[in-house]
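Changelog note: in this version the structure field was regenerated for every chain. One regenerated record is shown below for reference.
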Amino acid sequence: MRFLLMHRLDESAPEAWNPSKEFIETMGAFIQDSIDKGILITAEGVHPSVKGARVRKTKGAGIAATDGPFTEAKEVIGGFALINAADRAEAVAFATRYAGLFEEIEVEVRQVVEFEDLAELG
């Protein structure tokens, strides 16, 4: 099974966007180990919301795009990972190890809908 992990962090925290050399090395080792074990498919950080945009379609109002920053949200998505895991418990265990690398973070774990899952959903 594949799971998407999205991590949220405090956008106002300077260290969120300027990680230390030590953190980068620790994260690099964690990523390499996870790849070597066949768990991690891909992982990326994203730029602060000031460099982003939101596109929203609402019923009757059409589509609107809004440039960042997203001041109404203290916590924003700081990155994501796509992993292989046997089940939700294993994905949560991975997310727990990942979260342990940070001083403060929230990681959302969501199972990816696979093609064969569509029959069950319909």
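Spot check on this record: Residues 21-36 form the longest helix (16 residues). Helices lie at 14-17, 21-36, 88-99, 118-121.
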